[in-house]
Specification:
With 866 residues, the chain is of the alpha+beta class. Among the domains are: 141 residues, no CATH class; 70 residues; 45 residues; 187 residues, SH3 type barrels, CATH 2.30.30. InterPro entries: Plavaka.
Amino acid sequence: MPPKGKGPKGTLKPSVLDPLCTFCGLPFKSKGITQHQKSCKSRPEAVASDARSRAFEEQVQQEGLLDPFIPVIGPSSAYTPLGYTHTQLQAGNVENSKYYLIAHICLCYPAYDANIAIFNENETINNTDNNNTEPHGEVHTDEGSSSPFEQAPQLNDIKVEYHPRSGRQPQFFSFDEYKSNFQDLDSVDIPVDPEPWKPFRSRLDFELAELILDTHMNKNQTNELISLIHRCILDPKSFTLKNEPDLSKIWENAANRATKFEKTTITVEYNDEDKPLEFVLDGFQLAMQLQEDSGETGKKKYVNFKRVVWHKAFYEILKSVEQYAETGYHLTTADIERWMFPIVLIASADYEEQCIIALIRGVNSKFPCPVCLIPGDQLANLSSDFPLRFSSDMEKIYKSTIGLNASETEETLKNVGLRDVENVFWKFPRTDIHRAISWDRLHAYHGGLFSDHIWEEVKSVAEELGKGVSKLIDTQVDALPTWSGLNHFTSIIKTGEFADGSKYEDMLKVLIFALHNIFTKEASPRGYQLLKLLQSYVELDMYASLKVHTETTIQKGREELLVFEKALHEYMPFNPAKSWSFPKAHTHKHMFDDIQRKGVTRNYNTKPNEKCHGAFKNSYKFRTNFKNVAPQILKFDHADLVATVIRDDIDYLDLSQAEASAEDSQIQVTRNIIGMAHVSLGSQCAPVAFSDLEDEHSADSAFKDFHKKIGRFFTRYLGRSVRFGPSDQINPFQLLRVNYESKDDWCVATDLLRANPKFHGKPRYDCIIVKIDEEKYIFACLLYIFGLQVLDKEYHMALILPMDLPPDLENRGRDNDLRFNRVKARHHSLSVFISVESIIRGGLLATDYGSQYSDEYLVMDMDSDM
């Protein structure tokens, strides 16, 4: 065989420098000819076939028949004479042509992989191989078998060469005989499977599974559908729906269960022309689409016009109670007479919407805050107090411009940042819209101060430190431990903007633990000061997230606001080009005032309302025909509201019936759990012997002499000798559910803690807080969870690695500046056993990347309890 990379077979010429192979006669390099000749010797038939093919090709080349040929792209590799098409050759339309058509056929039926040669009748065929010992057309077959041809190949004969590993010899067939090998696929009698739906147990099972797959149902939806089907089987009369039109008609009849949509038309004057505008009311929701005029966009008059439209439309919601806002409404409930005055207490909106509600001029005005009259160049000043806005004052200023010319009106209103538009809320004497406007945590913090400013500064510092820094940050973020309910990030520096503010909320919780060893005081003074600012911001966000506030927490929050201001002003000189005089750097000045007047921030956070957008998008994507979509979306949105009302009533009915049934039968319903109410176990594994467990963890000194250590533990605990043998078994678990009373809202919270060597493909061993005595608590790492029988009693235990050693002194300055809590773990050989009941709750600990030792960790403040 010729060496690889030398071109097509037959193109090599003997050379005095290259010795010839004894078997195939081809030149070969001296270095590899010995191995090559061994290969040829073991394959005499293949060598002979190659020799015949080369002889034929050399004859074609000698007669000059290949030079005028060009390749034709088609179902086979072929050559045609210049100036002729493949079709012409097949039809025999080439006159005076003397050619060979050499093609390669690769067919899937039958299993041939053949080289085909079609010969011109005027050409002779070399009937001998290189040794002139065998006829060219002879077929090598087993003794006693006959060849398809007794004579040499004829015109249009087809030669079939099989794959060398098949061990089959080449064969020649006439064209008609070769075609007869192909069966008509349409006539093939394919056997019919009487149960093609297997492994599904029935055809109906498969068709239902196919529907679930086609409609992209998730796990809960699938379980609910299957449950409903089983209920239909048990009580077939309860299912009366016939088809989709029947269902639609029932929804129409149910529409009265909730306030229907109502289309309203208002008229607004613009450019001396009355413009009628339609909008839709659904309860207290206002949906209106105002077509933008590209020629007017941005003009002051058009900006004011859009605000007039909003306030006139909103008046349609309020006008039904306008009279009672002035006079009050007499109401008797539970024999108590009440005199009620409707007011707007809370206005939940982001900053841009607040500007429309309060009718102020916004970011670039002299006084951009909708709550107070702070100058635009003082927005980073959090320690000073400025006069508050009041609706009565703003109304007086607006009315004072009546009778003034346009320039005087503009100057008067600009001095307090007002628009030349009458505010609808002035019609309600007991409503002060500037007091109702509430600080919005979602847009002011996660989707504002952090995402648009602090986070951008972090990326800027990372870029200053060089290319490798971004990759290191992403690596360290990915290595941080996972936690239930917390987004885990594998990459953050090069990530795009998040549409979901909760992503930024989770990012700020973990970011500082991936940066502290990179943004050091020595490597980047700017970055180090930025970490101080970031840490103060995280503290403020923690206070903003509390579900219950006390006088103490509010006071500490106000103090932290001043710490943030100090850190911000210390950071400003590092990046003088960056301006921090923007509204969202100021609005949290009013956060704790709002908490005192209206309660915790979740009462007026826009986050719940933002989730409504997802329902609208899903209705548009999955339910509409993408034409005139507004009425369709409103129809489905109303149906969702009706379904919610009916579902709430059904749930209340079920609860009432269950309570009545329990009282009648005096049955107490309890949940089947493993463990106690405080700590329960889950993800139970197969029982394992002590010897197998110790062998499996032989590389971990924490598990050394496991059965002896647990025996000594129970000997001390029970006050009597307890021993376990290597063959004794325990019951492993991989999940703990720890219930505890939250210090935030005094309600029961649950931590899901895992000790799993392969949780979603990765090892996960969570950390915990353990009660040592009445006053001492420590952090520890869960290594193993198990249950075992001791003297006929089941005990639930955990093997833990305590983190109670004093940390090293090297990073004390950093810990003080960034307010880190650092702990140090024991050596694995010093692991201990505890009862799972001594676990207080879970704790999230991150490796201290700034420590030269791998046994130090930083406590991550994942919630307000930490």
